[in-house]
């Protein structure tokens, strides 16, 4: 009897339990001013996230008040004109994250309708083509993240054209296997550059001089996790690092990756003389040092030649001066000799000692 009553009571609760679990099983429908159906909002419609929904294009019905939009793990492939504001502008969108979305091409005015956008993250996308006006619709863009996004094709020339009219403050290029400083991608006024986890073995003197350009003197760089090779070619970077350490945000973490005797050595503790620079190595630093010594020797030789010419042109006057000096010395010595003889004569001494004689 008790078991029958328990079963009856449990049966009465099953419909209510089904109603409680129904919202978890059915995805939310798109609502005007709410979240689009393939996405969800966190706390408010101002933060929209679409993660691993395999979208082929950006969601159309986005809340007009959205501030942050994150789309990850989709297949957007191409960002076309006004890709995120085709239906209506998004005047408050400030941060747009598009990671792992298989974006290969960005067409002109792809960010049209996003006037307040300040941060764009395109990391982990196999970019192949970037139009010169790709970022023209976002005049306030200040941070661009391209980590592991330049591996599929060489895009330096295309990106240089796309970035030339922007006022970027931070540019992230980590994990792109860069072997040299991408100076063409550094717009004037850039404040932070992330070059971590690339393939940089050194920075040449010409690259370091580019960091002293008028519009880049305040630029701070991150160079961690690069295979820096501590040989003679690293000397320009080592000298620059000692004088500009505050401009390298992770200077204390920089280590030598080779050669084996120096592997793991901190660059800030590395002495230039252990790099083995010499004139025979043909390194730029060694050539500069050799040239400075040669110049110093030439200057000393010229000074010596001028001195000898002065002596030759004034040989008669010098000879006369030496003769006069010799005569003066002789007269002085004769005077000393005469006084010595007077003091040593006993007759003079006795005459001087006997008064009245």
From TrEMBL:
Pfam families named among the record's database cross-references:
LRR_8, LRRCT
Question: Keywords of this protein's UniProt record, alphabetized?
Answer: Leucine-rich repeat, Membrane, Repeat, Signal, Transmembrane, Transmembrane helix
Residue ranges of every copy of the LRRCT domain listed in the record: 226-278
BP terms from Gene Ontology:
negative regulation of canonical Wnt signaling pathway
Look up the coiled coil feature and give its residue ranges.
none
Top-rank lineage group of the source organism: Eukaryota
Q: Does the keyword Transmembrane apply?
A: yes
InterPro entries reported in the protein's UniProt record: Cys-rich_flank_reg_C, Leu-rich_rpt, Leu-rich_rpt_typical-subtyp, LRR_dom_sf, Wnt_signaling_inhibitor
Please give an example of a GO cellular component term from this record. Answer: plasma membrane
User: Signal sequence span per UniProt?
Assistant: 1-31
- Tell me yes or no: is Lipoprotein among this UniProt entry's keywords: no
What are the TM regions of this chain, as residue ranges? 293-313
Query: Per its record, how is this protein called by name?
Result: Trophoblast glycoprotein-like
Q: Which species is the source of this protein? A: Aythya fuligula
Q: Which gene encodes it?
A: TPBGL
